[in-house]
Structures
1.
Amino acid sequence: NAGVMQNPRHLVRRRGQEARLRCSPVKGHSHVYWYRQLPEEGLKFMVYLQKENIIDESGMPKERFSAEFPKEGPSILRIQQVVRGDSAAYFCASSPHFGQGRTMSSYNEQFFGPGTRLTVL
Amino acid sequence: GNSVTQMEGPVTLSEEAFLTINCTYTATGYPSLFWYVQYPGEGLQLLLKATKADDKGSNKGFEATYRKETTSFHLEKGSVQVSDSAVYFCALDSGGGADGLTFGKGTHLIIQP
C-alpha cells in the first residue's frame, strides 16, 4: 500500500538550469498539493491540482514555476532558470477528494511524501 | 487571511518530562486543526487532528484540544521519550482544501536522555 512517492529525493542544479520534481500520489487519490519549505520555516502552500486541472495556484511564484498533473503519470513541479533562493525542500501531498462546501467537518486529510531537497549551486 | 502561530524552538527537555507546545490560529469559518511531526530527513506525518470545537485529538501519548474560545490547539504529552525528538508543525485547513493547509513555522523538540 504505497504512500506518496517523490523523486528525486535530492536534486542539485546550477543557477540557470531547470529542475523537475515528480510526485506520485497515493493510489486512487486525484488531488495533489505542492508545498515549499525554506530553511527554518514552515511549509508554504504553492499549488493545488486535480487531474488535468490547476485548481489554485495562489502560492506559486508568477515566473519560472509551473505545475501539472496529467491524466496519466505523476504530478510535475517545474522550475525554470533556477536561482539560489529556490533551494528548499519541496513536499507533495495527496488527498482522495475535494470537500463539498465549507461545513464544520469538511476537510480532506493530506498525505505527505518524503520531499525533494533542491540545492542550487 | 489564515495564520498559525506556534512557540519558537528549540525546546529541550529531559526524558519523561511533561511537554507543551503552544499553537494559536486565526481563521475564518470552521477550520480543522492538525499537528504534524517531521523526523530528520523525512516528510511530514500526521500526528493528530481535530475537526470541530472541543474535539480532542490524540495519538502516541500526544493530545491536543480544539479550543475555539481561545483559538488554540496546544500539543501536550505527559512523559516524553528520546524518540519524540523531531520538528512539530501546527496546521489548519479552513475547509474544503482548496487553498491547502496553513502551517506554523515548526517547533524543534530535543529530548535528552
2.
Amino acid sequence: DTEVTQTPKHLVMGMTNKKSLKCEQHMGHRAMYWYKQKAKKPPELMFVYSYEKLSINESVPSRFSPECPNSSLLNLHLHALQPEDSALYLCASSQKRGQGFTTNEKLFFGSGTQLSVL
Amino acid sequence: DAKTTQPPSMDCAEGRAANLPCNHSTISGNEYVYWYRQIHSQGPQYIIHGLKNNETNEMASLIITEDRKSSTLILPHATLRDTAVYYCIVRVWTPRAAGNKLTFGGGTRVLVKP
C-alpha cells in the first residue's frame, strides 16, 4: 500500500465554521506534511511532523491547527478561515530513519482536499 | 536551498522524447536535484533525484551538467498521461534536518500532443 488517503475530497465552509481535514497512510512513514496550493501555483509547505511531533511550522496562521494523533494519521483543524484560504490542501508522508532526513526520503502525496471558504 | 528556473510551458509529441531543462546556477556542492510532477487533480509525484551523476529509473533519466548548474529531465517516450506540471527542486541534505523541506518553484507545464 503506497497510498496517502485524504478526506474529504471537497469541502465548503463558512468563515465561522470549524472543520477538519484528515490524512492517513499505512506505509510506516514517520514524517508527515501539510502543503497548501492555490490555483495555478506551486505547493507551499505549511507543517512538518516528525515522529508525531511538530518539527516545522512555516509561520502559518493559528486558524490552521495541525494534529498528529498517531504515526498513521494527520489532521488539520480549521477555524475562522478567510475566503483567501480557499485552496487545495495536500498531505504527504515520507519514511524517516533516525534523526535528520536522508536523500532517499521521497515524499508521497495524497490527492488533496479542495477547500472553498465562503 | 538554491533557486531553480524552468520554462513555464512546453509541448511535445506523443511517442517522442521530452527534454525538460532546469537551471540551478547557484547550486552548492551538497545540494541534490529532485524532480516531481503533478498531474491535474492529483498530488505531486516523485520522479527522480541526483547529486552529480546521471540517473535513470523506470520513469525518466536525469542528466546533470558537469558544473551542476543545470540539469535535464528526459521522458524517453512521452505519452498523453505524461501531461503534467514538472517541478525541478534543489534541496540541501542535512543529516539533522527537522523535515524534508521541499520548496516547489514555478515548474514547467508540459502538454503531450497526439
